[in-house]
Amino acid sequence: MKIILLGCTISLALLILGGCQKVIHLNLSSSDPRYVVEGILTDQKGTCKVLISRTKAFDDDNSFQGVSGAEVKLAAGGDTTLLKETEPGVYADSLMTGTPGHTYFLSVTVDGTVFTATSSMPRRVELDSAYVAEESPYGEPVKQMNVVYRDPAGEANYYKFVEFVNGVQVPQLFVSDDQLQDGKKVTATLRYYDDQGDDNDMPEIKTGDTVRVEMQCIDKAVYKYWSSMESSATGESQSASPANPVSNISGGALGYFSAYTLQERVVTAR
Asked: Would you say 4 and 174 are in contact if contact means Cβ atoms under 8 Å apart?
């Protein structure tokens, strides 16, 4: 199994189930502003959301400036849902719930331009358990979240984990595939390291802290988006635009659309 640690190069983390929205810049080269479309649909009620914004220059403030007046539609099996703009640049439907095995089509029309995307919701892989354990990777003991699940045999599976400590999101995403763990019971440690100085916002897990982890079963295209994000951040990409992740949005926008199953576990660190 390959686990990719994604740092603070994500344009906008969609935090749900009681979370908040945190804006993080894409690591883009200077160019004309482009639209950013970021959409999610899960198998949990009340999580359907699409955010529309524009890219910013490096020296701009780190705030979300939504694009209003767009027409946003989600379709599946002949049924189409028009999302409502609940606040500037945020389009949502409180009732729409995704179904594993179904394919969903996103259409965004803004300023006469149409952006489209397709995402298939994988079947749900059960998150068996989660726990915090202490380890010493570099001598100093640290507490880390661990997740346990059994990967289904004979099929390709892709996962993303998001961690929160006392309600604060760890600004690092954990993405994995089952290339080396097909059909096996997996215990994965969500490792992150405080290596950016005293001013970074990486929360440290301490005894008594409440730690929440989200497990997302994502499709291959979305996995490719997040893994290419990591490659761009570390300079490994050889593409013509190495700073831009591989989007599944057609029409020229940046971002992604992901239909995924969602589970969470909450534990108290000991």
From this structure: yes
